[in-house]
Amino acid sequence: MQTVHTGDEKIPLLNDPAKRSLIYQVGVMLMVAGLGYYLMSNTLTNLERQAIATGFGFLEKESSFEIGESIISYSAADNYARALFVGVLNTLKVSFIGIILTVLLGTLVGIARLSSNWLVSRLAAIYIEVLQDIPVLLQLFFWYAFFYEMLPSPRQALNPLSGLFLCNRGMIFAVPADHPVWGWMGWAFLGACIVAYFLRRWAIQRLFNTGKTFPVFWCALGLLLGLPFLVWTLGGAPVAMDVPQLRGFNFQGGMSVSPEFAALLLGLVLYTSAFVAEIVRAGIQSVNKGQTEAARALGLRQGQVLSLVILPQALRVIIPPLTSQMLNLTKNSSLAVAIGYPDFVSVANTTINQTGQAIEGVAMIMTVYLCLSLVTSAFMNWYNKKMALVER
């Protein structure tokens, strides 16, 4: 005889998978919350027993230490909040420039790795193997020692070009003297970049619709150079330069790139670009060879085949692992403390040593790098969705 179950029959609580999983999740959350409360209360009790201040009130106090490099104005009389902000900007500077250079260099090396020229392919392979196998910290030490040991003192500085000096204080070079027209030229260049972007999109759409090519490169180059030049001409065509001069034991004037920044940037870019090159190579090889043959059959040149057919398809494979390498470069920038570059970790460590508030300092370091990673991931996820194939 079969047992008939009616819809009104109640299932025991622990036999209902949905309710049982909910109970387990609530139980785990309560255990984690209890553990967090115990650790927090125990920490606060120990800090109070040792008369160690807590909270972020120290951020308003005078920092009383100098920072070697700063994008914004800063002095030892400023508070800790401004000092930490200087560290954040320094980290953003090396990370942003490093990511751009890494993507460009890694793409070039990855394409060279697939070159039919034996010498070019072997050199790219050696570049990848050597730089991948040497820890990034050792590379930072090498470049830092190179700039300090191999380059002369400021008094014997190398002068390969007029207004350019190389010494163990960094690379010092002449820059245009302060004038409003340079800011206008910057806006003009940005506008030219936007116009060139939409021009390229229009040219690609025109190619797909009519089969006719358009000289995008030369038109974009003309915009990027011509529009700022036109603004410079209309602004009075200033030519005055701020040339560095040796005064005492160092140079004054011009602009300088410190050995610490150069060593950090060079080490991070060379190390990370080796991994990016392999990602680019794998992405290109993932594209079916029939795509290349079909593009050539249509009469497209090699450069057009690469930019219009291969890379757009390869990007769908390249972007996810490329995002990881961007995050690695940003996080590896914290190694700057080993060579004296004042990034956020370095400034935060100095703040911790002076205030004794290690918990708050470490919490800020974790928060800053978490935010940088989330922003980078969000942007790359958006770009990845934009490049994804859309099924009809």
Automatic annotation (TrEMBL):
Keyword terms of this UniProt record: Amino-acid transport, Cell membrane, Membrane, Transmembrane, Transmembrane helix, Transport
Record field: transmembrane: 21-40, 94-112, 124-146, 181-199, 220-241, 261-284, 305-323, 362-383
Gene Ontology biological-process entries: amino acid transport
Main location: membrane
UniProt key word Membrane: yes
Membrane topology, from the record: Multi-pass membrane protein
A Pfam family recorded for this sequence: BPD_transp_1
Gene Ontology CC annotation, any one: ATP-binding cassette (ABC) transporter complex
InterPro entries: AA_ABC_transptr_permease_3TM, ArtM/GltK/GlnP/TcyL/YhdX-like, MetI-like, MetI-like_sf
Keyword Cell membrane among UniProt keywords: yes
One MF annotation (Gene Ontology) recorded for this entry: transmembrane transporter activity
Residue span, ABC transmembrane type-1 domain: 88-380
Compartments, as annotated in UniProt: Cell inner membrane; Cell membrane
Family classification: Belongs to the binding-protein-dependent transport system permease family. HisMQ subfamily.
Protein name: ABC transporter permease
Organism: Desulfosarcina alkanivorans
